[in-house]
Structure formats: C-alpha cells, structure tokens
Amino acid sequence: MQIMLFLNDLPSNDFNTLFQHLPTFYEGLKGVNEEEQQMLPTYVAVVPGSFFERLFPDNSIHFIHASYSVHWLAQKGNIFMSKSSPQGVFKSYLEEFQKDFMLFLKARSKEMVPGGCMVLTLLGRRSFDPSSDECCQPFKLLSDALFEMVSQVIRVSKILRAAFEPMLLIHFGEDLPLDDLFSRFANNVSNYMGKKKFISLLVTLKKKY
C-alpha cells in the first residue's frame, strides 16, 4: 500500500513556505517502525486551485479532509455583516454559502471513489443569531493583536496573509513582525480560552456509489 497526499490551496498561496516544511514532515515519518514504513510509503504533491471547482479526475480520491476552510465564500462581495445589518444581507450570505457548499460537494462527489470518505471540520457557534461573533473569536483576537501593534506605533505596512500566518504575509507583506504579532496573539488566545470554549463542527460523509 502507498499513500499519495495532495495538498490544495488557492494559487495565490505561498507554496514555497509549504515546501520548506516537507523535509520535517518526511523526517517525522522515519519515526515509524521499519515494517510500517515499508508498508506505507508516502508521497506529497500540491494542487493549486479553488475547491469550489474540480481538482482531480473522476473516481480518483479515497479520502478528503477539509480543515476550517469550507466556510470561506467564493464571492464575498463588499458588504459586511454586523448586528445592525438588514435581513437581506444575512440572506445574501446564506444563499452564497449554500451555493458554494453545493459546488464543493458536487465536485468532491465526482472525484471520490465509491466508498470514499470525506471529513469536514468547520467553525461553529451556539447562537442562531447570524451576527454573533462567537465563531469568529480567533480572527478577532488576531485583529486585537494587530491593533495593539498599531497603537504602540509599530509600523505595519501591507499585511494580510492566508490562514493566519500564510493569510497575513500575502496581504501585509514580509515586513510584518510575525514573532511579535503571534506572541500578542497567543497571549490574547490564552486570556480568552480561560473564559470561553470554541465550538467546532465535525461532519463525516461517505460516497455510496
């Protein structure tokens, strides 16, 4: 048995950073005993592209895992949700998510082999209020860390990389002092997690035929 692992993200992602971590990943595999290592040789490749579209040939993938990613919208627009937003804004976001999620499911259903399995991990919340920021606390804590840096006159030019660290470099640039930012972020998370718990949803789907 051999394992072929495909990593997917948008083409704008910094795949070079990902490649730099592969030697550490392969080194970690050497910790497995010799018998298992011979049984499960593992190979890694990247697949740039939007997961709202087809990424793989028909009936070619046995297992898919999307970790905290399928909540991103393909077309967000320029209107942001807040507690004062009219119901039409919430409805538009819901319809966009439903459309995007169906595109995601249809594409993956064609790519998976019969009997294949897909596991989705998503942010969740206890409240039915669509304006609740309960599920967005990690982003708010990161935002707070950025504002702390700005308030102390630490220059932050061009920022926004992909999924926290990656999310931030693409948008804010390499001048962002990441060590300082994530030190503040870790402190914010520590203070917050002492008071509240995050909600995550785990969804498992299996293709019958």
Automatic annotation (TrEMBL):
InterPro entries: MeTrfase_7, MeTrfase_capping, SAM-dependent_MTases_sf. Pfam families: Methyltransf_7. Signal peptide: none annotated. One of its GO terms (molecular function) is methyltransferase activity. The keyword Magnesium applies. Keywords: Magnesium, Metal-binding. The keyword Nucleus does not apply. This is Salicylate O-methyltransferase. The lineage of its organism: Eukaryota, Viridiplantae, Streptophyta, Embryophyta, Tracheophyta.
